[in-house]
């Protein structure tokens, strides 16, 4: 099947995207509307034939069967023998979801009730600051969403501490009153070194200030035993099952800080938005399925055309952490070099994902996107409306910039056009040629745009679920397990052995010359 994609990539060659718009219906035919959002992938080199080949690839890879397995609690995380059921967390009024012959929905709804009660209690209390201590999936989701939904905040201030760098927690604690601060220790495993170190520091800070810690620590974890050992009473522990992957966990207890910030009602709207996308993903035919098309466009650019990175460009400042969130979601899920059965992949793994909100990125790295030698497929996101009615002109400018970028990437500027512009400025001869060449934009650079009405909790839920399902489809097509993350283990193990060497308790025996030299430097310059 991959041969057919390679053949399509060759056939398409350097065909001009702009020419494809000679077909007046191109925009409509290469766009998709679902859940009130519009995904426009017409500014790519895809045509009917290449799209059909990609859909056949997805079909052949068993996306439909795998999708059914995921939603019905099949253990599709095969290396860990686990189901993958983050969708159950937002299955608010759906039917039963069975795992090992047992319906998990009563437990899910009960947990949501406990979260709601705790959030209400905290929102009604004198707590002014909530500090979520977690990392990776126990940080990126709630943090990204809390920033995204700031217009809906009506609860205590929320802070997020993730890095083991003491600078992170120090900067947050400096802004908090120990008598009015609540700490949420968010860790699926309750063993992650960064989180446990920060949690201990938070506890010591409270003790140091003479404030009793009772009632001031909440744990969100699948490991109730460890949370209890750490001293958090069961009534302050909200658990979740191992079928919720860390990077897919914002919908359940790990979303508590978000629920406290925006309130249970808005949090439920966030879940409902995701549920709407789930339903679309589950029921729409592959060629009319937004997550499937988003995935196939990504595969076309990465495995088909060989573009190793893609950039996410939200023209929505409150989505400033979406690129970081998607880095974990996509790269931790699909950054694997072997297929489910352990054989080497015969195609590239998922792409490098990066990005920044527009318009900021325009004044930073867009230079390379427009004129660099490598093609970087761009994924624009923009809302039709902002949250600042008094600043509508800002929003209109924002949209104009977003649309201008995708148009400029596609259209480019030829040498003839650049020469004409520079000649009009009075340049002639070799200097005209030299200056004109610097002003050429090759164009024909692909991009997609996801446009939605407004960044509400519901729409954010749809967007995040859209990307989750995209990752799922890409994983199935690549034949890999998107739900484990063995690639993070080696570094963790080595950090454990290096700790005592950095502190000087142990000699750096057995380490390579570079590592020894770096340790020696640290010991010389650290207090
Ligand atoms: O190291 C990677 C990872 O396991 C992520 O997958 C996870 O989201 C993060 O660490 C945090 O893990 P935990 O929630 O168990 O502290």
From TrEMBL:
<dbReference type="Pfam" id="PF00342">
    <property type="entry name" value="PGI"/>
</dbReference>
<dbReference type="GO" id="GO:0051156">
    <property type="term" value="P:glucose 6-phosphate metabolic process"/>
</dbReference>
<dbReference type="InterPro" id="IPR035476">
    <property type="entry name" value="SIS_PGI_1"/>
</dbReference>
<dbReference type="InterPro" id="IPR023096">
    <property type="entry name" value="G6P_Isomerase_C"/>
</dbReference>
<dbReference type="InterPro" id="IPR046348">
    <property type="entry name" value="SIS_dom_sf"/>
</dbReference>
<protein>
    <recommendedName>
        <fullName>Glucose-6-phosphate isomerase</fullName>
        <ecNumber>5.3.1.9</ecNumber>
    </recommendedName>
</protein>
<dbReference type="GO" id="GO:0097367">
    <property type="term" value="F:carbohydrate derivative binding"/>
</dbReference>
<keyword id="KW-0963">Cytoplasm</keyword>
<keyword id="KW-0312">Gluconeogenesis</keyword>
<feature type="active site">
    <location>
        <position position="363"/>
    </location>
</feature>
<dbReference type="GO" id="GO:0006096">
    <property type="term" value="P:glycolytic process"/>
</dbReference>
<feature type="active site" description="Proton donor">
    <location>
        <position position="332"/>
    </location>
</feature>
<dbReference type="InterPro" id="IPR018189">
    <property type="entry name" value="Phosphoglucose_isomerase_CS"/>
</dbReference>
<dbReference type="GO" id="GO:0048029">
    <property type="term" value="F:monosaccharide binding"/>
</dbReference>
<dbReference type="InterPro" id="IPR001672">
    <property type="entry name" value="G6P_Isomerase"/>
</dbReference>
<dbReference type="InterPro" id="IPR035482">
    <property type="entry name" value="SIS_PGI_2"/>
</dbReference>
<comment type="pathway">
    <text>Carbohydrate degradation; glycolysis; D-glyceraldehyde 3-phosphate and glycerone phosphate from D-glucose: step 2/4.</text>
</comment>
<comment type="pathway">
    <text>Carbohydrate biosynthesis; gluconeogenesis.</text>
</comment>
<dbReference type="GO" id="GO:0006094">
    <property type="term" value="P:gluconeogenesis"/>
</dbReference>
<dbReference type="GO" id="GO:0004347">
    <property type="term" value="F:glucose-6-phosphate isomerase activity"/>
</dbReference>
<feature type="active site">
    <location>
        <position position="492"/>
    </location>
</feature>
<dbReference type="GO" id="GO:0005829">
    <property type="term" value="C:cytosol"/>
</dbReference>
<keyword id="KW-0324">Glycolysis</keyword>
<comment type="similarity">
    <text>Belongs to the GPI family.</text>
</comment>
<comment type="function">
    <text>Catalyzes the reversible isomerization of glucose-6-phosphate to fructose-6-phosphate.</text>
</comment>
<keyword id="KW-0413">Isomerase</keyword>
């Amino acid at each position: 099947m991959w041969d057919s994609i390679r053949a399509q990539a060759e056939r398409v060659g350097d065909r001009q995207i702009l020419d494809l718009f000679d077909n007046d219906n191109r925009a409509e035919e290469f766009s998709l509307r679902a859940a009130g959002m519009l995904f426009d992938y017409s500014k790519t080199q895809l045509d009917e034939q290449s799209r059909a080949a990609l859909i056949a690839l997805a079909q052949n890879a068993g996306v439909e069967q795998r999708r059914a397995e995921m939603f019905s609690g099949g253990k599709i995380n095969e290396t860990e023998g686990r189901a993958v059921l983050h969708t159950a967390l937002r299955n608010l009024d759906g039917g039963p979801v069975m795992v090992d012959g047992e319906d998990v929905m009563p437990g899910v709804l009960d947990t949501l009730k406990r979260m709601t009660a705790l959030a209400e209690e905290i929102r009604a209390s004198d707590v002014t600051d909530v500090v979520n201590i977690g990392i990776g999936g126990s940080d990126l989701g709630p943090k990204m969403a809390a920033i995204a939904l700031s217009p809906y905040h009506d609860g205590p201030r929320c802070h997020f501490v993730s890095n083991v760098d003491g600078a992170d927690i120090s900067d947050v604690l400096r802004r908090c009153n120990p008598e009015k601060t609540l700490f949420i220790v968010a860790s699926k495993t309750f063993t992650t070194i960064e989180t446990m170190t920060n949690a201990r520091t938070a506890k010591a800070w409270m003790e140091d200030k003479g404030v009793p810690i009772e009632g001031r620590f909440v744990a969100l974890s699948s490991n109730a035993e460890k949370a209890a050992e750490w001293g958090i009473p069961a009534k302050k522990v909200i658990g979740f099952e191992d079928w919720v992957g860390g990077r897919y966990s914002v919908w359940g207890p790990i979303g508590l800080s978000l629920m406290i910030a925006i309130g249970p009602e808005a949090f439920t709207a966030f879940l409902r938005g995701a549920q709407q996308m789930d339903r679309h993903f589950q029921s729409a035919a592959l060629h009319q399925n937004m997550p499937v098309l988003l995935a196939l466009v990504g595969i076309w650019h990465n495995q088909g055309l060989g573009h190793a990175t893609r950039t996410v460009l939200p023209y929505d400042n409150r989505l400033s952490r979406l690129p970081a969130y998607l880095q974990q979601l996509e790269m931790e899920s699909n950054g694997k070099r072997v297929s489910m059965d352990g054989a080497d992949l015969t195609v590239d793994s998922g792409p490098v994902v990066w990005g920044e909100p527009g318009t900021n990125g325009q004044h930073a790295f867009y230079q390379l996107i427009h004129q660099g030698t490598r093609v970087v497929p761009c994924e624009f996101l923009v809302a039709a409306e902002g949250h600042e009615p008094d600043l509508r002109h800002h929003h209109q400018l924002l949209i104009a910039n977003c649309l201008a970028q995708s148009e400029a990437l596609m259209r480019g500027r030829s040498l003839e056009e650049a020469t004409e512009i520079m000649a009009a400025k009075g340049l002639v001869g070799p200097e005209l040629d030299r200056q004109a060449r610097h002003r050429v934009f090759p164009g024909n650079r692909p991009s997609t745009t996801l446009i939605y009405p407004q960044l509400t909790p519901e729409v954010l839920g749809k967007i995040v679920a859209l990307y989750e399902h995209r990752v799922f489809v890409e994983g199935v097509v690549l034949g890999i397990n998107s739900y484990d993350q063995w690639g993070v283990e080696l570094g963790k193990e080595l950090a454990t052995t290096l700790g005592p060497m950095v502190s000087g308790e142990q000699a750096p025996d057995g380490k390579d010359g570079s590592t020894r030299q770096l340790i020696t430097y640290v010991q010389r310059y650290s207090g």
